[in-house]
Amino acid sequence: MEPARQALYQYYVGWFVFLLASLYVLTKVIAAKLRAAGKDDSDGKGGTVVTEGFKKFQRTYLIVYLVMMAADWLQGPYVYALYSHYGYSQQEIGVLFIAGFASSMVFGTIVGSMADKYGRKKSCLAFAVFYMASCLTKHSPDYNILLAGRVLGGVSTSILFSAFESWMVSTHHDGAYPEEWLGLTFSAATSGNGIIAIVSGVVASVARDQFGPVAPFDVSFCCLAIGGFIVLVKWGENYGDQNINLAQTWGNAWNRLVEDKKIMYLGVIQSFFEGAMYIFVFIWTPALSSTSEMEILHGYYIVLCISYCYYCVIIGVRVDGDPTFEIAGSLRAS
After folding, report:
1. Sequence-separated contacts (24+) of 241-248 with Cβ below 8 Å
2. How many C-beta atoms lie closer than 10 Å to residue 225's C-beta?
3. pTM, full prediction
4. Which residues pair with 42 in a beta bridge?
5. What is the pLDDT of residues 196-233, one digit of tens each?
6. Which are the contacts of 139, defined by CB distance < 8 A and separation ≥ 6?
7. Alpha helices in 138-245 (DSSP H)
8. Which of 119, 104, 179, 114 shows the shortest CA–CA distance to 334?
Protein backbone atom coordinates (compact mmCIF):
# COMPACT_ATOMS: atom_id res chain seq x y z
CA MET A 1 0.00 0.00 0.00
CA GLU A 2 1.38 3.42 -1.01
CA PRO A 3 2.35 5.73 1.90
CA ALA A 4 -0.29 8.32 0.97
CA ARG A 5 -3.02 5.72 0.81
CA GLN A 6 -1.92 4.08 4.04
CA ALA A 7 -1.88 7.43 5.84
CA LEU A 8 -5.38 8.26 4.64
CA TYR A 9 -6.62 4.81 5.57
CA GLN A 10 -5.27 5.20 9.12
CA TYR A 11 -6.84 8.65 9.30
CA TYR A 12 -10.20 7.23 8.26
CA VAL A 13 -10.06 4.33 10.74
CA GLY A 14 -9.27 6.79 13.53
CA TRP A 15 -12.26 8.93 12.67
CA PHE A 16 -14.46 5.86 12.33
CA VAL A 17 -13.61 4.74 15.87
CA PHE A 18 -14.14 8.27 17.17
CA LEU A 19 -17.56 8.54 15.51
CA LEU A 20 -18.75 5.25 16.94
CA ALA A 21 -17.46 6.10 20.43
CA SER A 22 -19.07 9.53 20.44
CA LEU A 23 -22.33 8.04 19.14
CA TYR A 24 -22.34 5.55 22.01
CA VAL A 25 -21.79 8.33 24.55
CA LEU A 26 -24.52 10.48 22.99
CA THR A 27 -26.98 7.59 23.09
CA LYS A 28 -26.28 6.97 26.77
CA VAL A 29 -26.69 10.65 27.65
CA ILE A 30 -30.04 10.89 25.87
CA ALA A 31 -31.26 7.66 27.47
CA ALA A 32 -30.28 8.98 30.92
CA LYS A 33 -32.19 12.22 30.32
CA LEU A 34 -35.27 10.31 29.21
CA ARG A 35 -35.17 8.17 32.35
CA ALA A 36 -34.74 11.25 34.52
CA ALA A 37 -37.78 12.83 32.84
CA GLY A 38 -39.81 9.66 33.39
CA LYS A 39 -40.40 9.11 29.67
CA ASP A 40 -38.49 5.95 29.11
CA ASP A 41 -41.05 3.11 29.68
CA SER A 42 -37.90 1.05 29.79
CA ASP A 43 -36.18 -1.91 31.30
CA GLY A 44 -33.65 0.30 33.08
CA LYS A 45 -31.26 0.23 30.14
CA GLY A 46 -32.87 3.00 28.11
CA GLY A 47 -34.98 0.71 25.91
CA THR A 48 -38.69 -0.08 25.71
CA VAL A 49 -39.72 -3.34 27.36
CA VAL A 50 -40.51 -5.87 24.61
CA THR A 51 -41.23 -9.58 24.55
CA GLU A 52 -38.74 -12.27 23.60
CA GLY A 53 -40.92 -13.19 20.65
CA PHE A 54 -40.72 -9.67 19.30
CA LYS A 55 -36.95 -9.58 19.78
CA LYS A 56 -36.61 -12.79 17.77
CA PHE A 57 -38.82 -11.44 15.00
CA GLN A 58 -36.93 -8.16 14.96
CA ARG A 59 -33.55 -9.91 14.75
CA THR A 60 -34.78 -12.11 11.91
CA TYR A 61 -35.80 -9.04 9.92
CA LEU A 62 -32.87 -6.76 10.77
CA ILE A 63 -30.19 -9.33 9.96
CA VAL A 64 -31.60 -9.85 6.47
CA TYR A 65 -32.35 -6.17 5.88
CA LEU A 66 -28.88 -5.02 6.89
CA VAL A 67 -27.13 -7.76 4.90
CA MET A 68 -29.12 -6.76 1.81
CA MET A 69 -28.40 -3.08 2.39
CA ALA A 70 -24.71 -3.94 2.76
CA ALA A 71 -24.89 -5.60 -0.67
CA ASP A 72 -26.30 -2.38 -2.10
CA TRP A 73 -23.79 -0.11 -0.35
CA LEU A 74 -20.84 -2.24 -1.47
CA GLN A 75 -21.61 -1.50 -5.10
CA GLY A 76 -22.51 2.19 -5.04
CA PRO A 77 -19.13 3.94 -4.98
CA TYR A 78 -17.59 1.73 -7.68
CA VAL A 79 -20.20 1.41 -10.44
CA TYR A 80 -18.97 4.44 -12.39
CA ALA A 81 -15.34 3.53 -11.69
CA LEU A 82 -15.85 0.05 -13.13
CA TYR A 83 -17.46 1.35 -16.32
CA SER A 84 -14.64 3.84 -16.68
CA HIS A 85 -12.14 1.02 -16.15
CA TYR A 86 -13.71 -0.79 -19.10
CA GLY A 87 -12.99 2.26 -21.25
CA TYR A 88 -16.44 3.77 -21.70
CA SER A 89 -16.93 7.52 -22.03
CA GLN A 90 -18.96 9.65 -19.66
CA GLN A 91 -21.79 9.78 -22.20
CA GLU A 92 -21.88 5.99 -22.53
CA ILE A 93 -21.77 5.59 -18.77
CA GLY A 94 -24.58 8.11 -18.50
CA VAL A 95 -26.78 5.92 -20.70
CA LEU A 96 -26.07 2.94 -18.41
CA PHE A 97 -27.07 4.96 -15.36
CA ILE A 98 -30.23 6.22 -17.06
CA ALA A 99 -31.17 2.64 -17.93
CA GLY A 100 -30.95 1.70 -14.26
CA PHE A 101 -32.93 4.72 -13.09
CA ALA A 102 -35.60 4.22 -15.79
CA SER A 103 -35.91 0.54 -14.91
CA SER A 104 -36.44 1.43 -11.26
CA MET A 105 -39.02 4.07 -12.25
CA VAL A 106 -41.06 1.70 -14.42
CA PHE A 107 -40.96 -1.41 -12.26
CA GLY A 108 -41.25 0.59 -9.04
CA THR A 109 -44.88 1.27 -9.90
CA ILE A 110 -45.82 -2.43 -9.89
CA VAL A 111 -43.42 -4.30 -7.58
CA GLY A 112 -45.43 -3.39 -4.49
CA SER A 113 -48.67 -4.71 -5.96
CA MET A 114 -46.95 -7.82 -7.29
CA ALA A 115 -45.47 -8.49 -3.85
CA ASP A 116 -48.95 -8.21 -2.33
CA LYS A 117 -50.41 -10.56 -4.93
CA TYR A 118 -47.72 -13.23 -5.23
CA GLY A 119 -46.02 -13.02 -1.83
CA ARG A 120 -43.51 -10.72 -0.17
CA LYS A 121 -41.08 -13.49 0.70
CA LYS A 122 -41.00 -14.50 -2.96
CA SER A 123 -40.36 -10.88 -3.90
CA CYS A 124 -37.44 -10.66 -1.48
CA LEU A 125 -35.98 -13.86 -2.94
CA ALA A 126 -36.47 -12.40 -6.44
CA PHE A 127 -34.52 -9.35 -5.30
CA ALA A 128 -31.59 -11.54 -4.26
CA VAL A 129 -31.62 -13.45 -7.56
CA PHE A 130 -31.92 -10.34 -9.76
CA TYR A 131 -29.24 -8.42 -7.90
CA MET A 132 -26.88 -11.40 -7.91
CA ALA A 133 -27.35 -11.62 -11.68
CA SER A 134 -26.64 -7.89 -11.92
CA CYS A 135 -23.39 -8.42 -10.00
CA LEU A 136 -22.34 -11.19 -12.37
CA THR A 137 -22.78 -8.91 -15.39
CA LYS A 138 -20.08 -6.63 -13.98
CA HIS A 139 -17.46 -9.23 -14.96
CA SER A 140 -18.14 -8.58 -18.63
CA PRO A 141 -16.88 -5.48 -20.48
CA ASP A 142 -19.59 -5.95 -23.13
CA TYR A 143 -21.82 -2.87 -23.19
CA ASN A 144 -25.07 -4.75 -23.80
CA ILE A 145 -24.44 -7.11 -20.91
CA LEU A 146 -23.65 -4.17 -18.65
CA LEU A 147 -26.87 -2.51 -19.83
CA ALA A 148 -28.85 -5.63 -18.94
CA GLY A 149 -27.18 -5.60 -15.54
CA ARG A 150 -28.28 -2.02 -14.95
CA VAL A 151 -31.89 -2.93 -15.80
CA LEU A 152 -31.74 -5.84 -13.34
CA GLY A 153 -30.23 -3.50 -10.77
CA GLY A 154 -33.09 -1.04 -11.22
CA VAL A 155 -35.70 -3.75 -10.71
CA SER A 156 -33.81 -4.99 -7.64
CA THR A 157 -33.64 -1.53 -6.09
CA SER A 158 -37.40 -1.14 -6.44
CA ILE A 159 -37.94 -4.41 -4.59
CA LEU A 160 -35.38 -3.59 -1.91
CA PHE A 161 -37.17 -0.42 -0.85
CA SER A 162 -40.67 -1.90 -0.83
CA ALA A 163 -41.00 -5.65 -0.29
CA PHE A 164 -38.75 -5.99 2.74
CA GLU A 165 -40.51 -3.34 4.82
CA SER A 166 -43.90 -4.63 3.66
CA TRP A 167 -42.98 -8.12 4.89
CA MET A 168 -41.84 -6.72 8.22
CA VAL A 169 -44.96 -4.61 8.81
CA SER A 170 -47.30 -7.44 7.85
CA THR A 171 -45.47 -9.96 10.04
CA HIS A 172 -45.49 -7.43 12.89
CA HIS A 173 -49.28 -7.19 12.67
CA ASP A 174 -49.67 -10.95 12.30
CA GLY A 175 -47.75 -11.33 15.55
CA ALA A 176 -50.18 -8.94 17.28
CA TYR A 177 -47.34 -6.77 18.53
CA PRO A 178 -48.20 -3.22 19.67
CA GLU A 179 -48.32 -0.65 16.89
CA GLU A 180 -45.80 1.60 18.65
CA TRP A 181 -43.16 -1.15 18.49
CA LEU A 182 -42.97 -0.63 14.73
CA GLY A 183 -41.02 2.52 15.52
CA LEU A 184 -38.39 0.47 17.34
CA THR A 185 -37.76 -1.67 14.28
CA PHE A 186 -37.64 1.28 11.88
CA SER A 187 -35.30 3.12 14.23
CA ALA A 188 -32.98 0.13 14.57
CA ALA A 189 -33.00 -0.38 10.80
CA THR A 190 -32.09 3.26 10.15
CA SER A 191 -29.30 3.29 12.72
CA GLY A 192 -28.00 -0.07 11.56
CA ASN A 193 -28.08 1.05 7.93
CA GLY A 194 -25.84 3.99 8.80
CA ILE A 195 -23.26 1.74 10.41
CA ILE A 196 -23.53 -0.79 7.59
CA ALA A 197 -22.96 1.97 5.02
CA ILE A 198 -19.73 2.97 6.72
CA VAL A 199 -18.44 -0.57 7.18
CA SER A 200 -19.40 -1.53 3.63
CA GLY A 201 -17.46 1.43 2.29
CA VAL A 202 -14.32 0.27 4.07
CA VAL A 203 -14.77 -3.34 2.93
CA ALA A 204 -15.44 -2.33 -0.69
CA SER A 205 -12.43 -0.02 -0.75
CA VAL A 206 -10.09 -2.69 0.62
CA ALA A 207 -11.52 -5.33 -1.74
CA ARG A 208 -11.01 -3.06 -4.74
CA ASP A 209 -7.43 -2.31 -3.77
CA GLN A 210 -6.55 -5.93 -3.18
CA PHE A 211 -8.47 -7.76 -5.90
CA GLY A 212 -9.44 -5.26 -8.59
CA PRO A 213 -12.42 -3.12 -9.64
CA VAL A 214 -14.92 -6.01 -9.79
CA ALA A 215 -14.17 -7.23 -6.25
CA PRO A 216 -16.77 -5.03 -4.47
CA PHE A 217 -19.48 -6.59 -6.64
CA ASP A 218 -18.25 -10.10 -5.79
CA VAL A 219 -18.46 -9.28 -2.08
CA SER A 220 -21.95 -7.92 -2.71
CA PHE A 221 -22.85 -11.17 -4.46
CA CYS A 222 -21.84 -13.11 -1.35
CA CYS A 223 -23.97 -10.86 0.88
CA LEU A 224 -26.96 -11.37 -1.39
CA ALA A 225 -26.49 -15.13 -1.33
CA ILE A 226 -26.34 -15.13 2.48
CA GLY A 227 -29.37 -12.85 2.83
CA GLY A 228 -31.38 -14.85 0.30
CA PHE A 229 -30.60 -18.10 2.11
CA ILE A 230 -31.79 -16.66 5.43
CA VAL A 231 -35.01 -15.45 3.80
CA LEU A 232 -35.54 -18.90 2.29
CA VAL A 233 -35.16 -20.83 5.54
CA LYS A 234 -36.25 -18.35 8.22
CA TRP A 235 -38.98 -16.14 6.77
CA GLY A 236 -42.61 -17.09 6.45
CA GLU A 237 -44.72 -15.96 3.52
CA ASN A 238 -47.32 -13.21 3.77
CA TYR A 239 -49.55 -11.50 1.26
CA GLY A 240 -51.49 -8.32 0.73
CA ASP A 241 -54.53 -8.21 -1.54
CA GLN A 242 -54.17 -11.35 -3.65
CA ASN A 243 -57.18 -10.42 -5.77
CA ILE A 244 -55.66 -7.12 -6.84
CA ASN A 245 -55.89 -6.17 -10.51
CA LEU A 246 -52.62 -4.54 -11.55
CA ALA A 247 -54.14 -2.64 -14.49
CA GLN A 248 -56.99 -1.39 -12.30
CA THR A 249 -54.45 -0.31 -9.67
CA TRP A 250 -52.73 1.91 -12.23
CA GLY A 251 -56.06 3.46 -13.18
CA ASN A 252 -57.00 4.10 -9.55
CA ALA A 253 -53.60 5.64 -8.87
CA TRP A 254 -53.96 7.99 -11.86
CA ASN A 255 -57.44 9.05 -10.74
CA ARG A 256 -56.20 9.82 -7.23
CA LEU A 257 -53.30 11.79 -8.69
CA VAL A 258 -55.65 13.92 -10.77
CA GLU A 259 -58.21 14.39 -7.99
CA ASP A 260 -55.81 15.27 -5.17
CA LYS A 261 -53.31 17.97 -6.13
CA LYS A 262 -51.42 17.45 -2.88
CA ILE A 263 -50.30 14.05 -4.14
CA MET A 264 -49.10 15.64 -7.36
CA TYR A 265 -47.21 18.33 -5.45
CA LEU A 266 -45.62 15.67 -3.29
CA GLY A 267 -44.57 13.78 -6.41
CA VAL A 268 -43.00 16.90 -7.92
CA ILE A 269 -41.09 17.65 -4.71
CA GLN A 270 -39.90 14.06 -4.50
CA SER A 271 -38.84 14.16 -8.16
CA PHE A 272 -36.67 17.23 -7.61
CA PHE A 273 -35.11 15.68 -4.54
CA GLU A 274 -34.44 12.36 -6.28
CA GLY A 275 -33.15 14.17 -9.36
CA ALA A 276 -30.60 16.08 -7.30
CA MET A 277 -29.54 12.85 -5.61
CA TYR A 278 -29.12 10.98 -8.90
CA ILE A 279 -27.05 13.80 -10.37
CA PHE A 280 -24.84 13.61 -7.28
CA VAL A 281 -24.55 9.82 -7.61
CA PHE A 282 -23.49 10.10 -11.25
CA ILE A 283 -21.03 12.98 -10.89
CA TRP A 284 -19.50 11.80 -7.60
CA THR A 285 -16.77 9.52 -8.95
CA PRO A 286 -15.56 11.63 -11.91
CA ALA A 287 -15.48 14.70 -9.66
CA LEU A 288 -13.21 12.93 -7.18
CA SER A 289 -11.12 11.36 -9.93
CA SER A 290 -10.27 14.57 -11.78
CA THR A 291 -6.57 14.30 -10.93
CA SER A 292 -4.15 11.41 -10.77
CA GLU A 293 -3.86 11.73 -6.98
CA MET A 294 -7.63 11.58 -6.53
CA GLU A 295 -7.73 8.60 -8.89
CA ILE A 296 -5.67 6.76 -6.29
CA LEU A 297 -7.53 7.94 -3.23
CA HIS A 298 -11.10 8.58 -4.33
CA GLY A 299 -12.39 5.37 -2.72
CA TYR A 300 -11.25 6.51 0.69
CA TYR A 301 -12.73 9.97 0.23
CA ILE A 302 -16.05 8.38 -0.69
CA VAL A 303 -15.95 6.23 2.42
CA LEU A 304 -15.08 9.19 4.63
CA CYS A 305 -17.88 11.36 3.22
CA ILE A 306 -20.43 8.55 3.57
CA SER A 307 -19.26 8.08 7.15
CA TYR A 308 -19.93 11.72 8.01
CA CYS A 309 -23.34 11.69 6.29
CA TYR A 310 -24.57 8.58 8.01
CA TYR A 311 -23.10 9.57 11.34
CA CYS A 312 -25.43 12.58 11.17
CA VAL A 313 -28.33 10.28 10.23
CA ILE A 314 -27.68 8.07 13.25
CA ILE A 315 -27.48 11.10 15.55
CA GLY A 316 -30.78 12.30 14.11
CA VAL A 317 -32.39 8.97 14.93
CA ARG A 318 -31.17 9.11 18.52
CA VAL A 319 -31.91 12.78 19.16
CA ASP A 320 -35.34 12.79 17.56
CA GLY A 321 -36.37 9.68 19.48
CA ASP A 322 -38.77 6.89 18.72
CA PRO A 323 -41.99 8.98 18.35
CA THR A 324 -40.88 10.22 14.93
CA PHE A 325 -40.33 6.69 13.77
CA GLU A 326 -43.67 5.63 15.20
CA ILE A 327 -45.23 8.19 12.86
CA ALA A 328 -43.08 6.97 9.96
CA GLY A 329 -43.98 3.38 10.77
CA SER A 330 -47.68 4.19 10.77
CA LEU A 331 -47.39 5.94 7.42
CA ARG A 332 -45.50 3.06 5.87
CA ALA A 333 -47.91 0.53 7.36
CA SER A 334 -50.86 2.36 5.82
Report:
1. 241/116, 241/117, 242/116, 242/117, 244/113, 244/116, 244/117, 246/110, 246/113, 246/114, 246/117
2. 16
3. 0.77
4. 48
5. 887 888 888 889 888 999 999 999 999 999 999 999 99
6. 214, 217
7. 143-160, 163-174, 181-211, 215-234
8. 179
